[in-house]
Amino acid sequence: MNTPPSPPEAGRTDGSSVQIGAFVPLTRPGWVEAGRHLLAGLELAVREVNDVGGIAGSPLELVVRDTAADPQRAAAAVDDLARLGVAALAGEYHSVVARAAAARADALGLPFLCSSAVYDVLTEQPTDWVARLAPPQSRGWQIYADFLLSAGHSRIAVASQPSVYWASGTRILRDYLAPRGGTVIELDMSALAPADVCDELVDNRATALLLLVGHPEPAVSIVKSVRGDQRLAEIMIGAPAGQPEFAEWATLLGDDSAAIPFLRYLPERLSPLGARVETALRERLAEAPSFVAFEGYDTVAVLADVLRSHGADRARIAQSWPRVAVEGTRGQIRFSRTPGISVWQWAGTPIQVVDRDPTEPDRFRILHAG
Questions:
Q1: Does residue 9 register a pLDDT over 50?
Q2: Fewer CB within 10 Å, N side or C side of the chain?
Q3: Per residue in 245-277, pLDDT tens?
Q4: Does 318 score more than 70 pLDDT?
Q5: Which three-class secondary structure string do you get for the chain?
């Protein structure tokens, strides 16, 4: 492991607190609602760490940077936070942003625990500096493909926009479904209007449409167009990237928000710790917490454990990833090397396919688990 020296006061820019840099999308075009939930989880865990004495008597402090879904902005923030002397980096929701942050953190020798981004290739080369809580996209989307097949869908259209993340998702689905008799039909949303999608679905005899597009637009407009077309009354709409997880989805779409299966990273039943954190997050957010809020909480829980055991030296933090054993809100967190994944990976992340119940859109139904 190439180990740049840590600053004399790494993690303690004023000698009185241990600091963690946090990446969160808080403004558009970032997914602001996801960012708000991620930050709520991070902040709750920091508060609880400080309530029991902080890190060896020093308070833990978040230094938050808004990425606004901008990879260049995130990479610049890594440089800024490294100069400030933070002990480690945490957070981020958008995969393309986390990828930029991870590459820069690896180059600078700054440990980064990625909370929520799933893109398999967070760094081009294997690194000891980066670990991740969210499951790799390949694992989650293969479980989603299993769900599609079990539900009887073999002709699957994907409405997609240009992005390495969406292209990766399409490739995972095609590679998994093709040997099992499935067909993936790509609809390029840079060339189609939402209303045009309906004709394409009819012409291609698709039985399922997956939304591999931005939120709220064009995702919301596509759903409205398809739901309003009598020819497509039987088609299933899906959103593996999780757009329906957040309350804004139900607000924008009303009854049309239901019965759109998506991936969620929660267990069937929360542990006592998870249930306690859920209550605290609900109070902080004034709504039901998403899985992203739990990811934020678990990120700080892991980093606090590492900081207590190994101090704020950056190299020692990075060297500790394979020895982590922390009880998180969603299970025991341990990191390992996963084939094809360049970072330290939590292999036990729970994965569900869920949707909003048509009879009660605020309630989620578990349809499939992996």
A1: no
A2: N
A3: 999 999 999 999 999 999 999 999 999 999 999
A4: yes
A5: CCCCCCCCCCCCCCCCCEEEEEEECCCCCCCHHHHHHHHHHHHHHHHHHHHCCCECCECEEEEEEECCCCHHHHHHHHHHHHHHCCCEEEECCCHHHHHHHHHHHHHHCCCEEECCCCCCCCCCCCCCCEEECCCCHHHHHHHHHHHHHHCCCCEEEEEECCCHHHHHHHHHHHHHHHHHCCEEEEEECCCCCHHHHHHHHHHCCCCEEEEECCCCCCHHHHHHHHHCCHHHCCCEEECCCCHHHCHHHHHHHHHHHCCCCEEECCCCCCCHHHHHHHHHHHHHHCCCCCHHHHHHHHHHHHHHHHHHHHCCCHHHHHHCHHHCCEEECCEEECEECCCCCCCEEECCCCCEEEEEECCEEEEEEEEEEC
